[in-house]
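Today's session is about reading a structure prediction critically. Students often jump straight to the picture, but the first step is always the sequence itself: look for stretches that repeat, for charged clusters, for runs of hydrophobic residues. Only then move on to the predicted structure, which in these notes is written as discrete structure tokens rather than atom positions. Here is the chain we will use throughout the hour.
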Amino acid sequence: MEILEEILNTIMDVYNESLPNDKKHQLLASLWTKYYKLSEKLNIKLDEAYNLYLIGENESYIIYQEPERKNIDKEKLQQALSHYEDIKNNNYNDGLDMDEITNFLDYSVENARKTFDSLGLDVRTNSLNGFCELGQALTIMPLENLGLEVTKNTATTSFNYPFNHAFGTVTFPFKVHDRVVNKTYLIDSTYRQFFSTMRCNEGRYYTEEENTNLKVAPDPGYFVTDEIFAKALMKDGYIELTKDNAKKYGEAFHKASIPLKELGKEVPNKDEKYYEAILLNDEDYIIRRSELEGLNLFFPIQDSKKI
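Below is the predicted structure for this chain, in token form.
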């Protein structure tokens, strides 16, 4: 038991050091892996470990990327909204350009981030663990209220992930070379929560998830290999839903659902239909609508109304 306590004391020392993120992640991931493996071997669980787990949520990340706060140009947004209303009401063959689509997406994600601000959360440093349901509603519902095609997804339904996570998509009419095509974006304003060192280390294979007591695997961030993809989604809160991006997103959740004892038993080169799983698994919002009372769920062109 003494060696477990020594590991935890060292973890606390690292918490208190001012280190670059990557160095801190490297040290903490190694220490937590050592602790979890030994804890399982000795069949000893210390309360101090759980307390350290709780306070270490935002200490470091396996891939570090702060969300980018966007300055919304209200005039350009109004122009985009007016253009979209013309398209929708007059039903003629026209679409939005990329600047207009970006305005919609930036407003939607910034709407969620401002609400997190109002709750006292520092989105610059906070992982936003536990806020995915609110984030989903705040980003997707305003777009849905415009009349755009959206999906409301959970990682459980889409990827068989055993823990709760809510995200969604929106599809825009996009005009390119005198043609109008669908352009779909995946929106996940709390994706960063899956990259915390606390749950992105090998040791997570050897302990139970704190809320469910399930022994599964490290978080999805542990399995993401494309840092450019991960940083783009964490920075902007959205990314275009191509088949390639759908696989990068969904495959990490899939791998994070496989416990150590099941590794290697899957059929090799199994073709996972992540793109179809996301677009076809439309659900309802998880958060109760009564919990959204007083929050901004409409774009500014629309009259405020209760949901």
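Discussion point for the tutorial: Residues 1-60 form one domain.
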